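sorry for the late reply, my laptop died twice this morning and i had to redo everyting from scratch. anyway the thing you sent over, i finally got around to it. pasting the sequence first so we're on the same page, its 219 residues, then the predicted structure underneath. double check i copied it right bc i was rushing
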Amino acid sequence: MGGCTEICSDKTGTLTANKMTAVAFWVEGKNHDNSEIRNSTGDDNATIHKDIAQLKTIKEIADAVLINSSAYESVDAKTGELELKGNPTEKALFQFFTKAGCRMDNDQAEDMKKKLIFSTPFDSKKKFSLAAYYLEDKSVRIVFKGAPDYMVKFANRIAKADGEVVPFTDDDRKEFNEVIDANCLECYRTIMVAYKDMKKIEWELFLEKNDVNSKDDAE
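ok and here's the structure:
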C-alpha cells in the first residue's frame, strides 16, 4: 500500500442506498432482461415481470427461493405498514417474484417451511446455500442457490420452455456462460438456482447412511 496515492471507497448510504433490484432472469433457455427499458425510462418494473409470470417453471423457482431465503414481511411498529426485512439480495429476489405474481408472503413461507427437512446457510467456501424439503408425493427436493460459476459445474439437466427436463448440453452450457459473462460486464450480481429430486426410497437410503442433523453430513 505504500505506493498508493489515492484510495476511493464508498460508504453505504452515500453513493449507494443498500438496496438491490433483480433486473435480468435466464430461465428455460431464454434470457429476460429489462435493462434497455429501465435505462431509458428509469422503471425498474418494466415488462419483465409479465413475461416471467407466463413461464411454466416460475412457481417451482419461486418456491425454491422462498424456502431458501432470509427475507420476510414485517409490520412496522410505528407506521403499521408492511415492510420487507432481510438481506438486500434476498429482498430483491423476494420482490422480483412477488411482482411476477408468485406468492412470497409469510403464510406461504410458513407452509413451505412445514415441509423443510434441513437447510444450510450460504458461506464463501462452498459458494451456495441449500434447503431440502418434501414434495406432495413425499419425494424430496434439494434446492441450491449460489454462485453460478461454481454450481454450473455440477448441472446435468435443464428445464425447457415446455416444462420438460432434458440433458444440459454443451450448447446450453455455452449459452449459460455467455449470459453470465454478459451480466458480469453489466456489474450484475448473478445468482443460480438449481435443484435435485430424490425418490422416497432414494431419500430413505440416503438417511440410512447420513445424519442430516449433522452439519458435516448435510454439507
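The radius of gyration is 19 Å.
thats about all i looked at so far, will dig more tmrw
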